[in-house]
Design a protein that fits this description.
The protein is an alpha/beta fold. The protein has a domain of about 160 residues: Periplasmic binding protein-like II (D-Maltodextrin-Binding Protein, domain 2), CATH 3.40.190. The chain has 18 helices and 16 strands. Helix 5 crosses helix 6 and helix 13 crosses helix 14. The protein is globular, with a radius of gyration of 20 Å.
Length: about 400
C-alpha cells in the first residue's frame, strides 16, 4: 500500500474543476491516502508557470496546454503529460447586450444554434465595417475556447484573423469585461457565461455542446518528470479523481455538488446558478432558460479518458492558425502528450470500462453508441461538429491540408 502523501494542485474557478474539488471535499483523495491541497489561481498563464517551476505537482489545465508546452510553444516549456481528462463540454459564447440586439435585428432566433448565430454575427460584422471591429475574448491562445471559437467563426464565413480582434482575458474577468465595454463577446467556461447573464451584461448565443458535442475541454496536467518519479502516487490520484467523477456525474448529487462548488474558496458564485450549469438548464437570457443535453459531462461517455484523437484535433488547429508547422514529428509529440496508458494502468483495479482504443474518429456518431471496452457498459456519442465535418486522426495530413485558414463561404 502506498504511504500517505501530500500533493498541491492548481485550479481555476470554473465548473470543470468539479472533479478535483469533489475529490478533496468528499474524501476520495483521502481514501487513496492523499492529502490534496487545492490552490485557486486567477489565470491560465499562472497555472502553466507554477506547474513548470514545481509549485504545483498537478493542475486543472487547458486541454491544448500540454501539447503547446511539449512543442516548445510556451514560455518555460517543460515536458507535460495529460493522463486524464476532466470532463466534456462546459463552454459558452456570450455577447454584450448591444451586440445581442444587433444580431437579433439580423434575424438571429436566439436558440443557441451555432449556424444561426454565426449567420447573424457575419451580417453584423458586414454592417459595422472596419471602423467598429468586434473584440472577442478567449481565455488563452492555447485553449479549446480559442480553437472552437475560430472553428465556429470560420465555418460561418467569418475570418478570425481579418474580420475580428481576438484578445485574452482570464475567465473570472469576462463578465466585467463585457459590462465595461472592453470586449463585445467572449468564449469562456461556466459559470462565467451565466454570471454575465445574471448581472445583465451578457447574453449566451451558442455553446460548445452545440459547436462540437461531447468535445474535450480540460485535462489533469503533470510534468513528465513528476509522473515518472511518482508512478504510484499518480495512479492513486487518478483513481481518486475517477471516483470523484462518478460521484459528480450522478444527477442525484447535483444539488450537493452545486452547494460545494458555490462556496467562497471554490467558485464563489450563486448556488442556483451553479446548479443550472450542472444540469444543463441554462439561462441564456434573463427571461429564457434552455435545457441543453450533454452541456457538461463529468463521467459518462468516457468523459475522463484522454483520447489521443482529441490531442491531434487540437494540434490540427494549432497548425491551421499558424501556431506551429505540421510534421510527422510534431503530430507524434501532440498525440503522445495524452497518456491513455497511464489512465488504464491506474484504473485497472477499479470496475471501470476502459476504451480499447487510444484514438477514434471525431464527429462520426450521430447518436449514442456502445463501443468496445475492457468491461461492459461504455457508450459514446453523439459527437458531431455543427458543420457536419469529421476528423479522422488516421487521415490528419488530408484534414490539415483541407482546412483553409478561414474556409470562407
Amino acid at each position: 500500500m502506498m504511504e500517505s502523501a501530500e500533493i498541491t494542485v492548481g485550479f481555476l474557478p470554473l465548473l470543470d474543476s468539479a472533479i478535483l474539488i469533489a475529490a478533496a471535499e468528499k474524501g476520495f483523495a483521502r481514501d487513496e491516502r492523499i492529502e490534496m491541497k487545492l490552490v485557486r489561481e486567477t489565470s491560465w498563464a499562472n497555472i502553466r508557470d507554477r506547474v513548470a517551476v514545481g509549485h504545483f505537482q498537478a493542475a486543472h489545465m487547458l486541454a491544448p496546454m500540454p501539447i503547446a508546452s511539449n512543442l516548445g510553444l510556451s514560455p518555460l516549456s517543460v515536458l507535460l503529460v495529460a493522463p486524464m481528462a476532466l470532463g466534456l463540454g462546459g463552454n459558452g459564447v456570450t455577447v454584450s447586450v448591444s451586440l445581442f440586439e444587433e444580431m437579433s435585428a439580423h434575424g438571429m432566433a436566439g436558440d443557441l444554434d451555432p449556424a444561426d448565430a454565426g449567420r447573424a454575427l457575419k451580417a453584423v460584422i458586414g454592417a459595422r465595417g472596419e471602423a467598429k471591429r468586434l473584440r472577442i475574448a478567449v481565455v488563452h491562445p492555447f485553449s479549446g475556447h480559442n480553437y472552437e471559437l475560430r472553428y465556429w467563426l470560420a465555418a460561418c464565413g467569418i475570418n478570425p484573423e481579418r474580420d475580428v480582434d481576438i484578445v485574452v482575458v482570464p475567465p473570472p474577468l469576462m463578465p466585467d469585461a463585457l459590462a465595461s465595454g472592453n470586449i463585445d463577446m467572449c468564449c469562456v467556461g461556466e459559470p462565467w457565461n451565466s454570471v454575465a447573464v445574471s448581472r445583465g451584461s451578457g447574453r449566451i448565443v451558442t455553446i460548445k455542446a452545440r459547436i462540437w458535442r461531447n468535445s474535450p475541454e480540460k485535462v489533469l496536467g503533470v510534468t513528465a518528470r513528476w509522473a515518472d518519479a511518482n508512478r504510484d502516487l499518480l495512479d492513486a490520484l487518478l483513481r481518486a479523481l475517477y471516483r470523484a467523477a462518478e460521484w459528480c456525474g450522478a444527477l442525484q448529487n447535483a444539488e450537493e455538488l452545486a452547494a460545494i462548488l458555490s462556496q467562497p474558496q471554490w467558485l464563489d458564485v450563486d448556488r442556483e446558478l451553479v446548479h443550472g450549469c450542472l444540469t444543463g438548464a441554462l439561462a441564456i437570457r434573463p427571461d429564457h432558460i434552455v435545457q441543453v443535453d450533454d452541456f457538461f459531462v463529468r463521467h459518462e461517455k468516457a468523459a475522463t479518458f484522454p483520447w489521443q484523437s482529441h490531442a491531434l484535433w487540437f494540434y490540427s488547429q494549432m497548425v491551421r492558425w499558424g501556431q506551429c508547422r505540421h510534421s510527422l514529428r510534431n503530430a507524434a509529440i501532440a498525440r503522445d502528450s495524452y497518456r491513455p496508458d497511464i489512465y488504464r494502468r491506474a484504473l485497472k483495479p477499479l470496475p471501470a470500462p476502459l476504451p480499447g482504443a487510444n484514438l477514434k474518429v471525431e464527429g462520426a456518431l450521430a447518436r449514442p453508441q456502445h463501443v468496445g471496452a475492457s468491461k461492459a457498459g461504455l457508450i459514446l456519442g453523439p459527437d458531431g461538429f455543427f458543420d457536419g465535418r469529421i476528423f479522422d486522426p488516421d487521415a490528419i495530413d488530408a484534414y490539415i491540408a483541407g482546412q483553409n485558414p478561414h474556409r470562407e463561404k
